[in-house]
């Protein structure tokens, strides 16, 4: 992930999900209630969260200076009592990463619309 940041381009994929270790040894989650459509999101004991991050394996494309990069994966388990602190730090990292983004250049699209609009008006 660090190499992606150094090169200035690339994608990092993040995923998170609830982590249930051994479902047989733990007591069953509360039974389904008719009036609560999200009954399974309220377990008796909070569950840890599994966070995964990986870059996509890239291949050499013709006309680019990119090298072949192997896939790198990281994962960590965040305990329920540490979730708030984790998400505070995670938000800071996301904000820092967004500062390096460039605003998308839409000038070409506007120019094409003007040309197309001008061509339609001259026909009529």
Give the termini separation: 56 Å
- Total E-strand runs: 3
The global form is: extended
- Give the fraction of residues assigned to helices: 25-40%
Mean pLDDT: 76
| Main beta sheet | 3 strands, antiparallel
Number of domains: 1
Report strand order across the widest sheet. Answer: 1-2-3
> In percent, how much strand structure appears in the residues?
15-25%
String of helices and strands: HEEEHH
- CA radius of gyration is 24 Å
Tell me the number of helical segments per DSSP (H or I, 4 or more residues long). 3
Low-confidence stretches: none
> Helices and strands: which structural class?
alpha+beta
How are the SSEs placed, and which strands pair?
Layout lengths: L1 H6 L4 E7 L30 E7 L17 E6 L4 H16 L8 H17 L1
Antiparallel strand pairs: 1-2, 2-3
Report on this structure.
The protein is an alpha+beta fold. It has one domain (2-123). It contains three helices and three strands, in the order H-E-E-E-H-H. Strands 1-2-3 form a three-stranded antiparallel β-sheet, with no helix packed on it. The longest helix has 17 residues, at 107-123. The protein is extended, with a radius of gyration of 24 Å.
What's the short version?
With 124 residues, this protein is α+β, with helices and mostly antiparallel strands. It is built from three helices and three strands.
Provide the descriptors you would attach to this structure in a database record.
signal recognition particle, 3 helices, 124 residues, Signal recognition particle subunit SRP14, 31% helix, Signal_recog_particle_SRP14, alpha+beta, endoplasmic reticulum signal peptide binding, RNA-binding, single chain
């Amino acid at each position: 992930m660090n190499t992606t940041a150094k090169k200035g381009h690339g994608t990092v994929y993040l995923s998170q999900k609830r982590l249930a270790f051994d479902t047989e040894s733990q007591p069953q989650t509360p039974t389904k209630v008719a009036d609560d459509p999200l009954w399974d999101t309220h377990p008796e004991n909070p569950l840890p969260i599994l966070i995964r991050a990986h870059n996509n394996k890239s291949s050499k494309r013709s006309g680019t200076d990119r090298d072949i990069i192997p896939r790198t994966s990281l994962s960590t388990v965040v305990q329920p009592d540490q979730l708030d602190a984790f998400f505070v730090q995670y938000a800071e990292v996301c904000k820092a990463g967004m500062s390096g983004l460039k605003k998308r250049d839409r000038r070409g699209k506007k120019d094409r619309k003007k040309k197309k609009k001008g061509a339609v008006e001259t026909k009529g």
